[in-house]
Design goal:
Oligomer: single chain
Radius of gyration: 22 Å
Number of helices: 19
Order of helices and strands: HHHHHHHHHHHHHHHHHHH
Helix content: over 70%
Length: 428
């Protein structure tokens, strides 16, 4: 039985790594595992397919409100205004502009959430970087590293993990780690930009600054200076005033619309609220479906966990330090939705490790939190917004991986160690 389950697990890994639809893959594998484990039909329809998603409402609400807030930042022009001010501050210095713009984008994505927000902001930032003479691989790589850098503090993103690790919370302890992790990732981002900028200039591949960047910046509508605080309102309310995420996002949405004069009339306010909510739900719809299927698959895996534990219990390391080293060394296995990527075939590995009962849940959370950010969002072409970016920049996936992977790998290793010490409380 255990062998058959592992064979289907390997088949799912192959399916995920070939770019298969995750929602379909998780649900089909859940059905197969229930059939192989002879799980009673009553448990299948009740525990696996119903109860597993019943308690998911809170997380879905946070994701939806986070994506809604992200659309408000984009559609009201707040994100564009911040980018415009950054470019004006840097002047006609391409390197300084690229560094400042990348750091500002990282800060914006500590609150902005959703594929639509990444694409919309990218359509402002990337043309500016291209016209500054920044090589396309460097420009796209820097922007995607900036998006990833903001994810550690992003409330809507982090709350996805609480579906799998139910005892973990977005509290002061986590925020302290997230600030350090964001700093590490921004340091990797700066190193990335400096390395490729000076290498391209040394090799004569840098282009002259095009006036197109001035036109792009000029097209962004002016706003009041205090709009700059809007992206950071939700994190501030959660961190300092201990608000819950949904009211924090809602406050940010209302303040964002108010500061940009979109509440000047009742009809305009209703129109903007409806449009940004609709776009936010559209941005997060496929993600929500995938996360529902993750819950279903995890519930099925728990039903057959004894078989997997019996077969693999003596193979998987029982030392937290050994497991940490394994994750750092084998980090590229998170690429293409591999076994170290929790939002891919890695969900089965998580479930097996939880079933073993050897590791503290906070340690496992620390372990699996990093690869989706430091490796997948930073260097994997299967990430949804990365596929858009590669198409937009007309860049080959292999070149993108080759460019970003070394920096993503180092960022992952450093952040994994920090996470396991600060969150997992292990002693190296």
């Amino acid at each position: 039985m255990g062998v058959l389950l592992v064979v289907t697990f390997i088949a799912m890994i192959a399916y995920c790594m070939k770019g298969g639809n995750l929602l379909v893959g998780f649900i089909v594998t859940a059905i197969i595992w229930c059939a192989l484990g002879a799980v009673p039909m009553e448990k299948v329809v009740t525990d696996v397919f119903q109860t597993s998603v019943d308690t998911y409402g809170k997380t879905i609400a946070i994701i939806v409100f986070g994506a809604w807030f992200g659309r408000v930042l984009v559609d009201t022009g707040i994100a564009g205004y911040i980018i415009k001010k950054t470019v004006e501050l840097a002047g006609d210095k391409p390197l300084v502009t690229t560094l400042l713009l990348s750091i500002v984008c990282a800060l914006i994505f500590t609150s902005a959430f959703g594929v639509g927000s990444v694409m919309a902001i990218g359509m402002i930032v990337l043309p500016i970087l291209f016209s500054l003479g920044i090589d396309k691989k460097t420009a796209l790589g820097a922007y995607l590293l900036a998006v990833a850098a903001g994810m550690y503090l992003n409330i809507a993103y982090v709350n996805q993990f609480f579906v799998v690790f139910k005892s973990v919370k977005y509290d002061d302890n986590y925020i302290q780690f997230a600030i350090v992790a964001t700093g590490v990732h921004i340091a990797a981002l700066i190193a990335f930009i400096l390395f490729y900028y000076f290498r391209d200039h040394r090799n004569g591949r840098a282009r002259a600054w095009s006036p197109a960047s001035a036109a792009t910046v000029a097209s962004i509508k002016p706003l009041s200076w205090y709009c700059i605080i809007v992206p950071f309102l939700p994190i501030a309310m959660v961190s300092f005033f201990k608000w819950q995420p949904v009211p924090s996002f809602l406050l940010g949405i209302v303040v964002g619309l108010w500061f940009t004069h979109n509440l000047s009339s009742y009809s305009l306010g209703v129109e903007k609220l409806q449009k940004t909510l609709y776009d936010g739900v559209a941005d997060s719809g496929l993600l929500i479906g995938m996360l529902y299927s993750v819950n279903i698959f995890q519930a099925a895996a728990k039903q057959v966990a004894p078989y997997l534990q019996h077969l693999l219990g003596g193979v998987i390391p029982t030392s937290p330090t050994a497991l940490l080293i394994g994750f750092c060394v084998l980090a590229p296995l998170a690429l293409f939705r591999g076994p170290l990527m929790i939002w891919g075939s890695g969900i089965a590995l998580v479930t097996i490790l939880q079933a073993m009962g050897t590791f503290d849940e906070m340690f496992l959370f620390a372990l699996f939190l990093i690869p989706p950010v430091a490796m997948v969002a930073s260097a994997c072409p299967t990430q949804s917004w990365t596929m858009w970016g590669l198409s937009y920049a007309k860049l080959e996936p292999k070149l993108y991986i080759k460019t970003n992977l070394p920096f993503a790998w180092v960022a992952l290793a450093v952040t994994e160690v920090i996470a396991c010490v600060m969150l997992g409380k292990i002693t190296l």
